[in-house]
Write a structure and sequence with these properties.
about 220 residues; two-stranded antiparallel ribbon; about 70% helix; single chain; mainly alpha
């Protein structure tokens, strides 16, 4: 069944780019949200409800756009840099918040996201409320964008599957019998991995703009 689904996903851009380009754009959006959902699931397995999705998604988008438009960095390197920035932010946030439980953890992560939103909307170099114009990914070619994001989705699926089968599955769970250090280490790993997958999802380049309003709506 999985092989059939994968085959359809591979054939779709070839057919849609000629017959129905609109369907290809819809499929592209579906892939983007699938990556975001899988990355969220990595931390949800630990029993923690995080509301910082927009923060990591936005960090990746803003970092990529700023580096490519202001510093002339190639877009692939910019996307990777966005992922690294998001991982560093996730680790820092995790060290401060992962000892919290329940609603307290959710509020702390929401506060982090809202703080970034307010800051970026006040700074001139981030474009303020209007945001930034992102460079088109791969020259704006929808089939090429589809192929890239499909590859990222497959990477997210592989990562999720590997984590569920590896030793990281156990320390990342919220079982009370686990030692605090092991449990927090597993959750920090899940948080960092989730942040990286969110940040490297090249949605801003696909949508050609990045601002906190669009980031919040997409999530």
């Amino acid at each position: 069944m999985a092989a059939v689904v994968l085959l359809v996903m591979i054939i779709l851009p070839v057919w849609a780019s000629r017959a129905q380009p609109y369907y290809l754009q819809v499929a592209l959006n579906v892939l983007i949200f699938a990556v975001l959902a899988l990355s969220w699931d990595l931390l949800a397995r630990t029993g923690q409800l995080s509301l910082a999705h927009a923060a990591f998604y936005g960090l990746g988008g803003y970092t990529t756009t700023l580096l490519t438009t202001r510093a002339g960095v190639p877009i692939a390197a910019g996307i990777l840099a966005g992922g690294i920035v998001a991982v560093v932010a996730a680790i820092a946030l995790g060290m401060l918040t992962l000892r919290l439980r329940g609603i307290y953890f959710a509020i702390a992560t929401l506060a982090f996201s809202e703080t970034l939103r307010v800051i970026t909307k006040q700074l001139r170099f981030t474009g303020g409320s209007a945001g930034l114009v992102a460079p088109p990914l791969l020259g704006g070619s929808l089939p090429a964008q589809y192929a890239v994001i499909l590859g990222i989705l497959l990477l997210a699926v592989l990562t999720s599957w590997q984590v569920s089968r590896s030793r990281w599955r156990f320390p990342s769970s919220s079982t009370p019998t686990k030692s605090t250090a092991i449990r927090l280490g597993g959750k920090l790993f899940a948080k960092a991995t989730r942040a990286f997958l969110k940040a490297v999802d090249p949605a801003p380049s696909s949508f050609r703009s990045v601002n906190w309003s669009s980031v919040s709506c997409n999530l």
